Amino acid sequence: MTTWTTLAAALFPQGHTITEQDDFLNGVAQVDGQTVAVIGTTRHAAIGVEIALAQAQAVLRTVRDAPGRPIVLLVDTQGQRLRHRDEMLGIQRYMAHLGKCLELARQRGHRIVALVYDQALSGGFVSTGLMADGCYALPDATIRVMGLAAMARITKVPEAELAQLARSHPVFAPGPENYTRMGALQAIWHGDLAAALANALAQVRPTDERAALGLARGGRQNAYPVMAAVMGDVAAAS
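== Biotin-independent malonate decarboxylase subunit gamma ==
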C-alpha cells in the first residue's frame, strides 16, 4: 500500500502544499518548474456527495483562479458510497457533475493527468481517472469496475465462467496490466515517478486515443473499428 504522503514526496520533489481533509486531497505542487493543481482521494475513499462536490469545487477553482494550470488527479477510491442517503440525494448526478467539471477544465485548456496509486473501483474511477487526458497507474494498484462476484449476480453468468473468461479477455479481469491492454491506462509507471509525471504532462494530446490503443494492444478488438465505421457513416451523411 502506497500512502499519499510517500507518493507526493516521489512525484513532487520540487515541493508541494497538498493537504488531506476527510479523505480529500487538494493543493498545488511543482513539476519540472511549473505549478500544477493536485486533486485526489486517499484511504480507499468512498465517494459520497460531499467528496464529489469537494473535488468538483477544486476543479472549478483552478479553472477560475489559475487558467491553463495542469491538473493532477491522485486516485484511491472504493467507488461510490453505498448509503441510502447518498442514493436518495442522487449520487450519480454529483459524480456526473464532477466529470463535467473536468471536461470543462479540458475545454478551457487545462491538461489533466490521473494516477491510480492504490485502488480504483467503480464510479469513483470513472468520474476521475477515466476523465483525464491520460490515466496511469502504479504496478501494485488495484483497478476494476466491478468484481467478478458482483458481475455474476448482475449478468446471471456463473462466476466460474466469468473467471475463465477473465484469463483471456481483459474486459473481465482486474489489474493495471489488463486496463493497459484495453487502452484505459496509458502506461504503468516504474522507477522515477517525478520524471514519469513530467513526461505525461508534456505528452498530453487533445484527442481520445483509448480505443485505438486497445486495438493496438489486443485488449479491445471491436471498439475502434465500430467507432471508425460510425464516424465514416456520419461523415458520409453530412
